[in-house]
Each structure stands twice: as structure tokens, then as C-alpha cells.
């Protein structure tokens, strides 16, 4: 195979220091038929670097967005511009193991799958360690089974080679622009898939202190919109752990409340108040959920501090243990 028939989409924003290494890793082994670098209004010279790299690599195309929309919109542009039937996404500060593209593409073909995922590893420049390893006996799975593995705690991811049509359909029904919107999109993609396989090649996720997924930013408040979206989504999904998903949403509200000084105290309280009102309106607070001491304790404190006009929640005996732990 001279080229892997895949369009690799690299969303890029102020990542000039990583872009060339990322591209070199993608080109290593059997290169893809196409690489789309989608610049999301960078201000650090990333766009110029991407164009220079495009002159060196004949399979590279550069797209420049006129309005910053975040990685999910950059990926959307890449999906629509892609010419191959299969796509893969690589973030600019991450790396692929040489040969990973060919490995995943062959894995998808062999399993007659719509998606073939890599193993997910973290690295910090000095060492690497596994986040999610692919056990052969666990795959392939149906798209529905893969979707259920994203709920509660993430036990699967979507980094790999996928049919482009899955993303076209998912983006077609997706209008969210909230923080963590990419996680919601992943679930729509799995819902579209018939079969998901896996290979042993690795995707390396960089532990980067400057990453937008680590730094506290007011936009993170919109993750509560994503949490409500997911609760509604799970209501229509057979086998979904709705109680666990709701407990995670409450934990997310508590996590944001703990960081209200950085997020803006008034905005944080207002957002959490609206979120709690929506939980009540949706009837999402089941008796089983309210029997969880940690969830009930967090609800009691959040209601008292952010939404005192809502019906109160009685504190459980260990309400004093309200803290940052996961429910």
C-alpha cells in the first residue's frame, strides 16, 4: 500500500512548536493519502508554518478559518473538505506511532468495521504510560456497545480511523458549541456505527500544562449544557446508566463551583442555578440518586449557595464530607 486511503485532519491553534513533529509522526510509516491542517485563527505563526509544510509534503492541504470556533469546528471543516472515505483526527500537540494509520485501516477492513481505534497513551516528553489499552478479546463491539462504554466513566475513545460518512451524519444533527462538545459528538458517531474494532498501534496524547482541556476558563461553564444534553440523550438510549450520568453531572457542577473564583463567582452561581433548575424540571433526580450521600451532599450545598429559591435537599448524615471526590 503506497498511501493509506485516509484523510488525516489536524486542527491547529497556536501550536507552532508542535506542528512539525505532529506532521512528521503522521507521515511516518505508510503516509496517508491526504492531510488537512485546519488553522483556527492562530496568532503564533502556526498558519505560516503549516503553509511551509504544505510546500514540503505533496499530500498536505492547509485550510484557514476566518473565525475561531474551537477544535470541533476545525474538525467539521476538515471532514467536509476531506476527499477520502476514511478519516482520522490528530491534535497538533499529539503524536502517532509510525505505521498506526495503516494498522488501523487494515484492522477496520479485516473486521468489516466502521471504526478501528488505536490504543491511547499519555506522554510528557520524558515518559509515556497507557490510558486505554486495547484487549483483543474485547473487540470488535457494536456501535451501541461502544457508546455505552463512554457513559459513566470513559472506557473507550474514538481516536482511530473512521468512515467519513459517520462524521458527516453526526455533524449534520449536532448543533452544540459547548465545552466538551467533542465528547458529545463522539457519542453520536458511535451511535451511527455498526461495528467498532481496535488495533495495538498507539496514539500518544501529550500532557500539556497549556492545553485548553486543563486550564480553567469561563467557557468551561458551558460543560453543564453538555451534561444536560447527555442526560436527555441517555433517556432515549436503551441500557444507558442514567443515574450514573446524572451523578457525574452533579459532580461536574461541584467541580466548577470549587473553581468559581477563576470562572467568575456570579456567573458560576447563575449557571449552576440554571443547571439545578433544569435537573428538577427534567425529573432527573431519582430516589436512587438521592440515596447517594455524596451526590445529595453536593446538591444540598449547591442549592443553598447558588439556587436558594429551589426546593432544598436534605443533607445526608455525612454531608460534611462534601469535597472534590467523584460520586
Automatic annotation (TrEMBL):
Coiled coil feature spans: none
Every Glycosyltransferase 2-like domain range: 7-134
A Pfam family of this chain: Glycos_transf_2
Protein's name in the database: Glycosyltransferase 2-like domain-containing protein
The organism of origin for this protein: Geomonas limicola
